[in-house]
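W.,

You were right to be curious about this one. When I first looked at the sequence I had no strong expectations either way, so I just let the prediction run and decided to look at it fresh. Below is the sequence, 103 residues in total, followed by the output.
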Amino acid sequence: MAHLIEDRLKALTVAEVAERLQVEIRTVYALLKRRELRAVKIGRVWRVPLEALDRYLMGRRPEVEYDEEPLSAEELADVEASLQAMKRGEHVTLEALERKYGL
């Protein structure tokens, strides 16, 4: 079981991805730049999770993970009203919206 978790969490270097795909390293960087291939930047280097490479090879777009639920209609209306107020030059604070929604 632990071995399966280790395999799932394994990540490849850009050079390893290029070798597996039989493409130039710059091609892999282009995929990362266009966000066609998901990767994690650790310091100055990129690591591509095996799962992300699998998704790419299967023709699926990278999944974007969100920590929060989508905004409600009321919340969207407040955001729109805040944007309109800012366009009119009015002062709008995030703190006010956070207080209103208990964030």
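Here's what jumped out at me. DSSP finds six helices and three strands in the chain. And, maybe more interesting for your project: Confidence is low (pLDDT under 50) at residues 1-5.

Coffee later to discuss?

I.
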